[in-house]
Amino acid sequence: MQLRLAFQITKKGPLTMMEYIQKLKHISDSLAAIGEPVPEKDQILQLLSGLGDEYNPIVASLTARDDDLQLHAVHSILLTHEQRLHLQTTAVEEDLLIANIATHNRPRRSQSSKPSQGKPPQSFMPTPRLDTLPDS
Length: 136
Hints:
57% of the residues lie in helices and 0% in strands. The chain is an all-alpha fold. The longest helix is centred in the middle third of the chain and has 34 residues, at 71-104.
């Protein structure tokens, strides 16, 4: 009874996909060893129901299929999806790191180049037009 409950409440949580698959397989094998084998379809359903929100698109896709899914095929699909999620997360983290470095390594203007008393620096002062100068 305790093994059956453990099988039904197991969640992926922080486990890698391979660890999660192995955990469910171990429980399933233990149930089979005591004469309570878990049908493959139930193993697939439990595997999918224990996943987090980041797997919702793949779970929806797998549960909408009309054909009979094989457990090893579901394992393969989930491992591939996990790898894809990892690559996307890594790419986002790298982009954030690059943006952070670029922001912090930008050359800063020196105090002397800042406008003082609300006047623009001399280099930004407009040059008077010759046709507007008084005749001497």
